[in-house]
TrEMBL record:
The chain crosses the membrane at residues 26-44, 153-170, 182-201. This is Uncharacterized protein. Keywords: Membrane, Transmembrane, Transmembrane helix. It comes from Flavobacterium caeni.
């Protein structure tokens, strides 16, 4: 799949180069595309770590299954009564799960939704937190910190993205646009649509 993605991107690079600069930049772009594909595959291969998270009545245990090159971090155990806050923050291609404890901050970076049980982990964690907050096991309630899409900032992002979307559509429908402008406008359109989707998906369900 990664090779197919690289070939797809390379094809479009060559197509656009030949469209705007016919016969001038093919060799340079070919070299750059090959290097980019190799670099991308290398990053995916060597920049992925794997952890195992265990949740029980005592707390959370993070066990390293695979670490990054030259990394030698110890396993971590965090008791429930030491956790103060937590935050689930999505970003482009990643989800950052962070919790703040009395002995520091801890975070988990997640990427592959279809290859692990991260979503189940978050659901189980929040279920445990709800139960613990109603008991006397923790000295203070564990609270969730809203991410950028969940608070008032999410509504601001949603409003700006919709405005950009409407302006883009209006510009396309009322102006004579050259083919090269369509690529720029489509990038703006897709970017605005992405942020709208993120806000709608991550807003609290009421």
């Amino acid at each position: 799949m990664l090779v197919a993605l690289g070939i797809f991107v390379y094809t479009w690079i060559v197509f656009l180069a030949d469209l705007f600069f016919p016969g001038k930049v093919f060799i340079a772009l070919t070299f750059n595309a090959i290097i980019s594909i190799i670099g991308f595959l290398a990053v995916v291969r060597f920049s992925t770590s794997i952890i195992q998270i265990t949740i029980d009545e005592f707390g959370i245990t993070k066990t390293w299954i695979k670490q990054l090159p030259f990394q030698n971090r110890p396993n971590t155990v965090i008791e429930w009564n030491k956790i103060l806050q937590y935050k689930v923050e999505p970003s482009r291609g990643w989800i950052r799960f962070k919790f703040i404890a009395t002995n520091g901050e801890f975070q988990i970076l997640h990427r592959n939704h279809f290859e692990d049980d991260f979503d189940e982990f978050v659901q189980e964690f929040e279920t445990r937190v709800t139960t613990l907050n109603q008991s006397e096991i923790v000295t203070s309630k564990i609270s969730r910190i809203p991410n950028i899409y969940e608070g008032r900032s999410g509504l601001i992002i949603l409003s700006l993205a919709i405005l950009i979307l409407l302006i883009t559509v209006y510009h396309i429908s009322t102006s004579r646009i050259e083919i090269k402008e369509y690529f720029a406008l489509s990038t703006v359109f897709l970017g605005a649509a992405y942020f709208i989707l993120q806000v709608l998906v991550n807003r609290p369900k009421r």
